[in-house]
Write a structure and sequence with these properties.
mainly alpha; Four Helix Bundle (Hemerythrin (Met), subunit A)
């Protein structure tokens, strides 16, 4: 029997089951499909945005990851992505880089926790590759990162039907 209580709340099992109306099987099914349905795709988009320091792309990918993570009660991932969205909106380069590094670490924990809870094998190689390339490009923050795109604005209100448009399911 798997212990579903997670002290550090990488995934809050009880909250997740509650989100699915008390149906553990539905919650478990969503956990099993989380990485392949949404997480990997949007982590790739976030990585691309970070590598270009494209605030719009960072905000959009972070928003989508946050939404998907909220469905599985991945509280830490939700927290990091929300902070990443806010920092990108304020164009705080160093904060964006710091939070992205923390999100990469939490992503590994999240995928390992999903494996522990439902037995799916995570693809940590992708996260490890993003982490490696991130550290090469930004070894000391943004000081030596080279040219970046012009400052971009992101609309403060997401469009109607936003979560459906992001195709997180």
């Amino acid at each position: 029997m798997v212990n579903k209580q997670n002290v550090d709340l990488t995934i809050n099992w009880d909250k997740g089951v509650q989100i699915f109306g008390g149906d553990e099987d539905s919650f478990r099914m969503f956990l099993e499909k989380f990485e392949s349905y949404s997480f990997s795709k949007f982590m790739e988009q976030l990585f691309d945005g970070i590598m270009q320091m494209d605030y719009v792309a960072i905000h959009e990918a972070s928003h989508t990851i946050k939404g998907a993570a909220s469905y599985i009660a991945a509280d830490k991932t939700v927290k990091f992505t929300k902070e990443l969205m806010d920092a990108s909106d304020r164009h705080e380069d160093q904060t964006v880089l710091k939070l992205y590094g923390e999100l990469l670490k939490e992503s590994k924990s999240l995928l390992k926790e999903i494996e522990r809870l439902v037995g799916t094998k995570p693809n940590l190689a992708l996260i490890n590759e993003y982490e490696k390339k991130f550290k090469i490009k930004y070894p000391k923050g943004l000081a030596n990162s080279g040219p970046r795109p012009a400052e971009l604005e992101y609309p403060t209100n997401p469009p109607p039907g936003c979560c459906a448009a992001c195709n997180i399911f």
